[in-house]
């Protein structure tokens, strides 16, 4: 499981147990907020990482490889359609890269998963000790992807990570029987994260997430578009972040 996904599980549990936990979804790098650096306009889309799993009647969660392939295709298609219709940024394709560059890219995305997951957890659950990180969000992965900038002319990279847990027919039947007995058991869920990383500096310029518990299916383009629209609805959200989180006004 991705560290980002695990971090969100922890946050959701904490939020459900305490109304005092502040949950600011969107994070915006301080260079966009304080230095008024322009939001990225040309963004290279990295291979989306979507994992679709089945939740069995007994509560076992297993990834279904064919479903994951369908989810990756649907999300890839949906983000391209959405970028054209909303013009939030221009998406460019990942160019052909060498094996060495592919290894670097894989390591970089894994690092993003760890850094963004930690950042999201401490800025949401860290309380006063980490409040300054929300106001001055400065997380970075360091240099390493400038070769993509040179090959594409893009400013930044878009990373999309998601998990879809689909309840089996047996799980749904068990849910109904349990509900009749006054017992609540979880069904499936859908989680999507998106992050934009500066290709020159490695700064995590922006990231956000969305969660659905109402049966959305990432294998279906229509559902994927709805979730991506919610995920990107506030992008880049610099003025709002400056005002509501940092307290600098417009």
Tell me, rounded to a whole number, the average pLDDT: 88
Q: Number of domains in the coordinates? A: 1
Low-pLDDT regions: 16-23
Radius of gyration: 19 Å
Helix-residue proportion: 40-55%
First-last Cα distance: 39 Å
Taken as a percent bin, the fraction of beta residues is 15-25%
Helix-strand category:
alpha/beta
Largest sheet data: 8 strands, mixed
Order of helices and strands: HEHEEEHEHHHEHEEHH
Number of separate strands: 8
Which shape, going by the Cα principal axes? globular
- The DSSP helix count reads 9
Provide structural commentary.
- This protein is α/β, with parallel strands linked by helices.
- The chain has one domain.
- It has 9 helices and 8 strands.
- Strands 1, 2, 3, 4, 5, 6, 7 and 8 form an 8-stranded mixed sheet that branches.
- Strand 7 and strand 8 (about 205-210) form a beta hairpin.
- Helix 1 (about 5-15) runs parallel beside helix 4 and helix 3 packs across helix 8.
- The longest helix has 27 residues, at about 100-125.
- It is globular, with a radius of gyration of 19 Å.
């Amino acid at each position: 499981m991705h560290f980002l996904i695990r971090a969100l599980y922890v946050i959701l549990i904490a939020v459900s147990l305490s109304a005092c936990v502040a949950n600011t979804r969107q994070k915006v790098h301080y260079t966009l907020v304080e230095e008024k650096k322009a939001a990225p306009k040309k963004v290279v889309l990295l291979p989306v990482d979507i994992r679709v799993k089945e939740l069995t009647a007994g509560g076992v969660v297993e990834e279904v490889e064919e479903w994951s392939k369908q989810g990756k295709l649907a999300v890839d298609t949906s983000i391209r359609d959405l970028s054209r219709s909303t013009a939030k940024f221009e998406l460019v394709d990942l160019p052909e890269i060498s094996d060495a560059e592919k290894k670097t890219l894989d390591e970089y995305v894994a690092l993003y998963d760890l850094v963004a997951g930690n950042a999201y957890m401490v800025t949401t659950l860290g309380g006063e000790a980490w409040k300054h990180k929300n106001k001055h969000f400065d997380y970075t992965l360091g240099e390493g992807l400038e070769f993509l900038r040179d090959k594409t002319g893009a400013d930044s990279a878009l990373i999309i990570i998601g998990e879809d847990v689909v309840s089996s027919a047996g799980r749904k039947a068990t849910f109904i029987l349990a509900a009749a007995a006054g017992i609540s058991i979880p069904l499936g869920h859908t989680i999507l994260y998106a992050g934009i990383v500066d290709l020159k500096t490695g700064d995590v310029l922006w990231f956000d997430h969305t969660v659905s518990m109402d049966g959305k299916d990432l294998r279906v383009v229509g559902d994927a578009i709805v979730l991506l629209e919610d995920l990107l609805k506030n992008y880049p959200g610099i003025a709002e972040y400056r005002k509501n989180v940092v307290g600098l006004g417009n």
